[in-house]
Give the backbone structure.
Amino acid sequence: MRNVISLLRCARLSLLVSLIMLLPVCGYAQGSQEADPSAALVSALTAACKHDETQFATYLTADNATAFRALPIDQRNAILKRFSLTEDAGRPLLSTDQNGRSILRCQVASATAEFRFGSPRAGENLAFIPLQTVDGDTSDVGMVRESGGWKIISVGLMLFDIHQLSGRWTEQETENREDDAIHSMRDLQTVIGTYQRAFDQLPESLQQLGPAPKNQVSPEQANLISAQLSSGTQNGYRFRYRIVTGTDGNPSGFELTATPEAYGKSGKRSFFLDAAGKFHAADKHGDTATADDPVLPEDTQN
């Protein structure tokens, strides 16, 4: 009987420990002075999951922390998103696998990011921790001992230097917005054709392509694009639509333009879709593109 009682107590204790390990991570570390580099990385990713930029900065080297705090808020948020693999602030949950290795999950409404920690290769002042994400990719995160704590110094083969990386990330985000603008123009080109076939005329404005009440589709509200795009702005670009008339004075086609709302931030290139369906693009420093600008290669239009 004593053995049974002992087993029950052990089972209760095991269950309690399991439940505690699955509780949200609250104050896993109050600073960046963890003696174990893996614990410091868990705390850094926990801060990133919660989008707690103040706590996250404590796990950066002194130079990176200074550079991070000096970034605009959207760039600081972008770094937190890149580390947490989530678009929004999440709920961090810490557990361990059967080998006692840490598993950190970052739960948001739409998805859960998961990080599995491998055995660190650690020296006196430098450590590399294998980190596997839910998609199976594994990268080593480098940690360096600085001011009594462990700080992130590299991710994979890339040195984590915010001064350099922020510029690259900004360029990549700009390119992504430009690609989105091209896709939006392509979508508009398609739905304008759909509108013309359905109502035997071209729309007079983008607003006519927008949402309609249930069962009330009409030439004035065709329900073909989102309210945002029908307003003429989306993802940092302004879209303009113009009907082209032929020599007989009747509509013969249409043109579209896309211009960055904030030149250099939301995009650099301006785009023009001519009546023949060709895309033109150029860095116009915020001005509108025209048919005189270079034609985009077809492999960059999709």
In short: Residues 2-160 form one domain.
